[in-house]
Design a protein that fits this description.
The chain has about 500 residues and is α/β, with parallel strands linked by helices. The protein contains 15 helices and 21 strands. The structure holds acetamide.
């Protein structure tokens, strides 16, 4: 290996000590808690390679850095040669800025095979990201086996056809689409991730985004207001009006779902969704209206809040913590609940100021389903343009919180991939990369003010080292010059928004 080591994410301190040499078989690893959680110190010298971690995770991240130093072929599944890698002599001292460094995969809109999810665990590990959030249920599909309610997957895990893209012309893929993970599949994913110091956060979305669940068990819906047996699993995109009925029976049903979820996912955080609950059916349902009066919660927002608070208490009583999208602030936030802030920074700022922990993932900055350039060739362009540089200049702690005690409530940040237009692994790769590399640097490294960030340096490290690592990992990223012809989707309509002013300044 020649030249200066080009690491992504950038470490806190990197000191070349001159020269380089082959690394032998032995890497000495030990833990020194004084370094702090996930921190590590890597020393490569002529006589030794040593990794000291603040904990086991720190040792693991140090190993990822050593792998990066060993050249791109270290990211292949087997070595190309028997020669040991030549690594520069140096010391790296490093620690993450944020404890929660996540990627959300929406496996509901398009199912992603278990093997592809396991591969994404490896990809996260290589980028020192430590949370995999699985969006397991939505209007268009239910993807987790629940043994006591088999129809959730028998009926809810597939749809007869799928809308292709957005808008006009209206196109359909007439093939049925589906799939789900058994509980053992998910246990395997959780264990594989744990070996890589990655936590898996399951999301069961309620009370909205529930059409697949209602298709499976129509009694979960607002049957006194609409025919809940009719619609089936949603085949088109957009938000369904089919939301859960706010009854004790439905709450008990979901307690059954979460009982099984807790058996599979041992992590502290359980995501209950809470986003985009359309209240029309509740307004029309005599049962829902009577419930509002009986509970004295005032209106439909209060009803949603009642449901969220119920599951907050229910999870807390079992040693877990609820996290939900920022709509869970509507009608009052449950004590102890954490918020995933996706609509600008507003909900996250309010939640942090009220003492709640926040994961920042504003759609205006880090939604990876959004298009990555203005080029006409972008496949099924959706949302706002978020270029690689835009993501590199994303700042999770907005000015209003920065420098205040509330900033500590921003426990982390996450990039989210919704999968309406990513029908397979290659399309997922294209949307996620290279932008996840920029996101990983934002989540791990302590970078300057967005305006002062050296994107040129990041881009140089991408070109000199990291694209070659992504090639070795066989990631079908968007090339810097634009999509390969086979990555385009001519004729499938997208839906682009006008670029907002950068939101960081508005918070
Ligand atoms: C969301 O994007 N509906 C959380």
């Amino acid at each position: 290996m020649t030249g200066e080591p080009n690491l992504i994410p950038a470490p806190r301190r990197l000191e070349p000590t001159g020269g380089s040499g082959p690394i032998g078989d032995t890497v000495v690893c030990r833990v020194d808690p004084l370094l702090g959680p996930e921190a590590y110190r890597l020393t490569v010298a002529a006589d030794r390679v040593e990794i000291v971690g603040g904990d086991d995770a720190g040792v693991f991240w140090g190993r990822q850095t050593l792998r990066q130093l060993s050249g791109p072929d270290a990211f292949r599944r087997a070595p190309l040669s028997r020669e040991p890698a030549v690594v520069p002599y140096l010391t790296v001292e490093d620690a993450p800025r944020f404890a929660w460094r996540g990627l959300m995969l929406d496996v509901a809109r398009h199912f992603l095979a278990k093997d592809d999810v396991l591969r994404y665990v490896d990809v996260l590990a290589a980028h020192k990201l430590n949370v995999l959030h699985l969006h397991l249920t939505d209007d268009q599909g239910w993807r987790v086996e629940i043994k006591r309610y088999p129809r959730l997957t028998e009926v809810g895990a597939w749809r007869p056809r799928t809308r292709l893209g957005w808008g006009e012309p209206e196109l359909w893929d007439e093939r049925p689409h589906g799939g789900f993970y058994t509980q053992d599949d998910l246990r395997e994913i959780v264990a594989y991730a744990a070996e890589r110091h990655i936590r898996v956060v399951p999301e069961i979305d309620l009370p909205g985004h529930s059409q697949a669940a209602v298709a499976a068990y129509p009694e979960l819906g607002n049957a006194d207001a609409v025919d809940t047996g009719a619609p089936g699993v949603k085949t088109d995109w957009g938000i369904s009006p089919h939301v859960l009925a706010p009854t004790d029976a439905v709450v008990e049903f979901y307690e059954g779902v979460f009982t099984e979820i807790l058996e599979v996912f041992p992590g502290r955080f359980v995501h209950i969704g809470g986003d985009e609950c359309v209240k029309d059916q509740w307004r029309e349902s005599p049962t829902a209206q009577a419930r509002i009066a009986e509970l004295g919660v005032g209106d439909e927002d209060g009803l949603q809040s009642w449901m969220i608070r119920h599951f907050d208490r229910w999870l807390a009583a079992r040693g877990r913590r609820l996290i939900g999208w920022d709509e869970i602030l509507q009608g009052g936030l449950a004590p102890g609940a954490a918020v995933m802030c996706w609509r600008w920074y507003t909900g996250g700022v309010a939640a942090a100021e009220a003492g709640h922990d926040v994961v920042m993932c504003p759609q205006q900055e880090v939604y990876l389903d959004h298009v990555q350039s203005e080029d006409a060739g972008e496949p099924v362009p959706f949302g706002w343009v978020h270029t690689l540089e835009d993501v590199y200049r994303f700042e999770p702690v907005p000015p209003r919180l920065s420098g205040t005690p509330h900033a500590a409530h921003v426990i982390g940040t996450q990039a989210n991939l919704w999968s309406e237009v990513t029908e397979n692994r290659a399309r997922v790769d294209y949307q996620v990369f290279p932008r996840l590399a920029a996101f990983a640097e934002v989540a791990w490294s302590t970078l300057p003010h967005p305006d002062k960030r050296d994107f040129g340096d990041f881009d140089r490290r991408m070109h000199e080292a990291h694209y070659a690592r992504l090639d070795a990992l066989d990631i079908a990223y968007r090339p810097p010059t634009g999509p390969h012809p086979w990555q385009q989707r001519p004729g499938i309509p997208g839906r682009m928004h006008h670029k907002p002013r950068r939101t960081w300044y508005m918070a």
